[in-house]
Amino acid sequence: MPPNKTAERLAADVTSSDSAFRRFLHGLPGVDPVGLEARAASLGTRSIKTTAKAYAIDLAISMIDLTTLEGSDTPGKVRSLCAKGINPDPLDRTTPRVAAICVYPDMAGVAAGALKGSGIKVASVATGFPAGRVSREVKIADTRDALAAGADEIDMVIDRGAFLAGRFLDVYEEIRAVKEAAGSARLKVIFETGELSTYDNIRRASWIGMLAGADFIKTSTGKVAVNATPANTLLMLEAVRDFREQTGVQVGVKPAGGIRTSKDAIKFLVLVNETAGEDWLSNHWFRFGASSLLNDLLMQRQKLSTGRYSGPDYVTVD
User: Fold this and answer.
1) What is the pLDDT of residue 88?
2) Which of 218, 264, 267, 296 is catalytic?
3) Whether residue 155 lies in the annotated active site
4) Catalytic residue among 65, 89, 152, 155
């Protein structure tokens, strides 16, 4: 897809110098923390009826980036996870497939082989995940290795140290460099919101990522104490909505880490619908980064269809 001229022009204007970029980012509307958290909490109380709940559960399953990011990962574990992503419930073939399998770069080839012909994407974390404390050259090489192995999507981490030191243009340029290396692969930019300290910083990081060409903005690595929350995801949904209104470019959102139950997932889908709108209610524009969420969705799905709750032994342990 050719670059959007409005977005490219805005990026060129605001990043023309470090001072210009700083003025733009600090000129974004300030976030009212109390109001943001109250809005997120109020949306979380919405009642979802049975038919809508069944639809929401299937939608959530189709949005999962089923993830294993452990030092103990083996080819067998990755192939098992891929099999589960393709056929989440062996007793009910109407169950949707997940959106992607997310692995480390050295496992991207294993996942690509296991998923061939399934339509499920291979997402690979790269750029020195989860800390990102490597050089730009290493980050680009990491990205290229993942792509060469068969990754369709790259989940990169920003340099939080550079961001918190106020080196916003460095963060922007690094995302641009990784985006260029990623080519046609979709790029998800991880902010690690739990380390950014303030909601204002999360808003600034969101705009840096979008201006730099991110296809998705992502809350977290899942490796720190505070990961995806309704409030920080609501803020990022507001950012992608505002960015599309200003530039015409749609950017996806991926909350990751700590979303474990169907109830949690449905709350996040309500946030999407009420904040960004229906255009984001597909796995092309919204994902859940999760390892355990799928099991609860499957159990709740079975209960809706049979009236019985089977418990955790009904699903595989990943």
Assistant:
1) 96
2) 218
3) yes
4) 155
- Could you report the average pLDDT of every consecutive run of 10 residues in the chain (318 residues)? 76 96 96 98 87 94 97 97 96 96 98 98 96 95 97 97 97 98 98 96 98 98 94 98 97 96 96 97 97 94 83 65
Inter-axis angle of helices 199-211 and 230-247, nearest 10? 40
pLDDT of res. 1: 45
3.20.20.70, 2.40.50.140, 3.40.50.980, 3.30.70.890: CATH of 11-306: 3.20.20.70
Q: How far apart are CA 307 and CA 44, in angstroms?
A: 25
* Pairing, β 64-67 against β 100-103: parallel
The separation between CA 107 and the C-alpha centre of its own chain, rounded to angstroms, equals 19
Q: Using an 8 Å Cβ cutoff, are 22 and 168 in contact?
A: yes
The answer to whether residues 272 and 286 touch, using CB atoms and an 8 Å cutoff, is: yes
3-state helix, strand, coil in the chain (%, to 5): 55, 10, 35
pTM of the shown model: 0.95
100 bridge partner residues: 65, 121
Q: Judge residue 73's burial from the number of C-beta atoms within 10 Å of its C-beta, 0-12 exposed, 13-18 middle, 19 or more buried.
A: middle
Strand partners, 103: 124
> Which is catalytic among the residues 121, 179, 254, 267?
254
Q: φ, ψ for residue 193 (rounded to 5)?
A: -60, -30
Residue 84 annotated as catalytic: no
Catalytic residue list contains 106: no
The two three-digit tokens of residue 196, written as one number? 């950014």
